[in-house]
Structure formats: C-alpha cells, structure tokens
Amino acid sequence: MSSVTVSGPGLIQGTFIPPGDKSISHRAVMFGALSDGESSYTHFLEAEDCLSTLEAFRAMGVSIDHKKGSGKITIHGVGLRGLKAPEREIYLGNSGTSMRVLMGILAGQKFEVTLTGDPSLTSRPMRRVTDPLKKMGAQIKGKDNGNFAPITIRGGKLKGIDFDNHLASAQVKSALLFAGLYAEGQTKIRETISSRDHTERFLQSAGASFKRAGQWLVVEKTEHLKPFHAEIPGDISAAAFFITAAAMTRGSSLTVEKVCLNPTRTGLIRVLERMGASIQTTVTQTDPEPLGIIQVQGRKLKGTRISKDEIPSLIDELPILMTAMAVAEGESLISGAEELRVKETDRIHSMAVNLNRLGAQLEELPDGCIIRGGAKLYGGKVTSFGDHRTAMSMAIAALTLEAGEVVIEDTDCVATSFPSFFDELNRLRK
Ligand code: S3P
Question: In terms of CB atoms within 10 Å, which of 236, 315, 392, 429 comes out highest?
Fold first, then answer.
C-alpha cells in the first residue's frame, strides 16, 4: 500500500488540461460497443474504472483497439444485439458506474453474466438498479435480494416501466435508459432534480428512439445506434481539485482548458462563486457537450450552505468543497447529501476524520455536515479509506496548512479516476 507526503503551504499556478471525463468515457465505450460500425474517441480516460468498462465489453466479444498512453480508442461496435456471453464472471474493480450501468445493458441480453468487484464495490447498494430492472423482466440474483455483488443477471423479455428517479442518480437513470432500448413499450423516467445527462446526449446523437418531455425521459425499443467520432471533454470532477485549490489560496492563478461545462456537472463553480471565489468561465463549444475554459484567481473564501437540490450537480466534488469550507471564514452546512455515505467509502465520515485530524471543525450529520470554518490546519497523518476523492482532497488540504505536511496513506486508489494527479500537483504547485 503506497503513501504520499504533501508539504504545505502552497499555491497553484499554471495551465491544466484535465484528463478525459470519467462519466463520458464509460458511456463512450458502452455506446461505441452497442452501435453499428466503428467508433473512435480521443482523450479517453485511461484510469482503472474506465478500463474496467472497456475490458467488460472485450469479454463480451467486442474488439477494441487501444494503445496504452495514447488516449485513443477505436471500438468495433457489434450493434445492440451482438454481444456474446463472456467465458467467466466480469470483474469491475472499484467502479460503481461500470456495474450499475452495465446491468441495464445486460438486462436486454439473452445470456447470463455475473458481475463482481473489489470489497468496496461489493458492499455498495445495487437494489436501486436491480429492483426496477426486475420489474422490467430481467432475472437477477445477488446477496440480500439483489442488493450486493456478485450479481448474476439473465436478460429477459423486457417491458417498459414508469420510474421515479428519487435518488437523482445518473447511474440508475442510465441503466434504465439502456434497458429501455430493449423493452416493449415506453420506459419513462422522471427526475425532479436533474442528474448528469451524458447518457441522454449520447442517445440523441446515436439516433435512438428517445425524447425529453418536461421532467420525463422517454425511451423506446431501438434497433440501431449510430457510431461516434469524438474528443472526450476534460473531467471537471478531476479539475475540481486544482480549481478549488487555486480558488482558496491567495496568490494562486489557474487556467483550465478543454473542460466539460455541462450545467448538470458545474455545481462546484456556482458554490465556489457563492463562497466569494474569483472564477471566469468561457464556453467554447455547446454540442454534444458544453466545453470551455475556467480561469481562477485565489482569495480568501467564506462559508456557504449546500442543500438537496444542488447535490447531484456536485456530488463528487463535496469532499474537496469540505476542504475549502474548513478554512473559509464562517460556518458552512451541507445537507441532503446522504448518498455520500454509499460512495467508494462513506465520504462524510472519511473527510470528517481526516480534516479534523489536521485541526478542522467538521461535525457529521446523517445527510451532510456542519463545518465551523476559519480553522488553522497543521500537518498530520491521514488515510484515503480506499477512496480516490478522499485521497486527492487531503493532498489539496496540505496546500492550506499553517505548517507541516500531510502524509496520506493508501493512495493507490487515485488511479481509479486520475492516475496523473500527483504528477500534476507537483507541476502546478508553487
Ligand atoms: C456517475 C454518477 C454519480 C457519480 C459517479 C459517476 C455516472 O453517481 O457520483 O461518480 O457516471 O453516472 P450516482 O448516479 O450514484 O449519484
């Protein structure tokens, strides 16, 4: 198990192009595999999670060309009904998106597959996906009535359902949208709070039988998907660590280029602005995904409140926002974020334990936390709890130290989403 030491304090200065977006990279492989003909992408995220998705499709007979380090992939799509039964169970490592969204695709296949993963993934709740897929007609078995992997799924003759996505989960929504491509009748999904809409954008570009109608997403059985040729936008959830680092340290100046600016993903920017950050955003492309430049100048921030409606647009950015809130002036409150407790680790707990160890005042609530800001942080030893975003947030916390260094234990997990994170931190920190 490796550990990394980051000394403080520090500033962020320079220009940064984030790695390919994780959510879009997963979907790029899925849509490429299920479309007719060849799809090609550049700036694909070569992190463990997305490679798990890629290997899963290879195991189901899809030929994918990928030269490691190039960011380029070419997928020889087999069409919606061309996947083959894998020879053995499919291992998805730490990747919740791979497992949950794949289940929707597998619900439409005429063969049986078992999906499994690492100890974190096999203890994350899956019934949110398996229950509605069973209602659609899939046969699914797993521990605790289909709640935990290993999960065995045999696709059935599916029928459309009406589903209320009350968790505002893009993973659940995406699984059902994929299953809907194979189902008789309409599959209708209602979202009162929008979650990330990358799957919908892919469905539209692929020519699927899909429409948005107010709060409802409606998908119908589809015979063919068109292939894709695209550059994957930079991941704002990876950029978030450096954006926040720059925003909260006086003297920092950062330009982030080619970053995805999809409004369902940019809650971080809105919250940092509310905290008083100096951020300028320029949109350079709108279709199929908004893309652009973010410029940040560092200054002292003040506390704010984040509540339920905003959570899906910044769910993965809450650990780094907690770090900013710990040192900002005044009190902050995060509520309606109980989903954080079932991420790769319980991120409310991991961040509370770690930040408090450095001198922060963060009090856990069942669905969030209260943070008494203005803390002076000093060096100490923390752990990732096996969670990539906790590890990266604690590395950034080091930049705000009064003195000392942060020793972060168990940092291998960073490779699940951002393998070059520590190299980039070394390059950008001053
Ligand atoms: C993701 C959706 C989010 C997010 C995850 C990626 C996706 O999860 O936390 O990192 O790609 O659909 P939920 O849908 O469970 O909120």
Answer: 392
